[in-house]
Amino acid sequence: MTFQEAFNALKNTYAETTAFDEVPDDFAAEITLTDPDCGGTFYMVKKDGQLEIEPYDYKDHTVKLTLDSRLLKDILTNKESAVAAFMDGRLDAEGDVTQALALVNALKNQKRKDAAEDRTKKEKRARE
User: Which of 19, 42, 50, 53 has the fewest C-beta atoms lying within 10 Å of its C-beta?
Assistant: First the structure.
């Protein structure tokens, strides 16, 4: 998978996320993926209550994260703990780490919300 493919998948999954109340208004993260075949940098910033994700570095970030794409996916799908990854050195974080944790929690909450909505739709279709 190329960086552009990984980035597009992330953006398509989270660009419409609305569950950002717990993310500070000044949130701006620069995220660097370290994979040899999928490396690159993108940013995520909260703007007007929405998450903006673009494939550029962002020098005015409040937090900078460095990790590989598999770890990012595992953190966002609850297969891995961001705290554990940070503690054992697989995730490097510079700046306001609490903002990164707030983002992870918001994205996980959105995934749970989406899954619950999908279950409700399936149950409704099954009753029809």
Answer: 50
Which two structure tokens, joined as six digits, stand for 100? 């990164």
Give the structural domain span for 48: 3-115
- Stated pTM of the model: 0.77
Spatial CA neighbour of 76 closest among 51, 56, 40, 94? 51
Find the mean pLDDT for residues 77-96. Answer: 90
Cβ contacts of residue 66 below 8 Å, gap of 6+?
31, 32, 34, 91, 92, 93
Task: Establish if 123 belongs to a structural domain.
Answer: no
What is the share, in percent, of the chain residues with pLDDT greater than 90?
A: 21
CATH number at 88 reads 3.30.1050.10
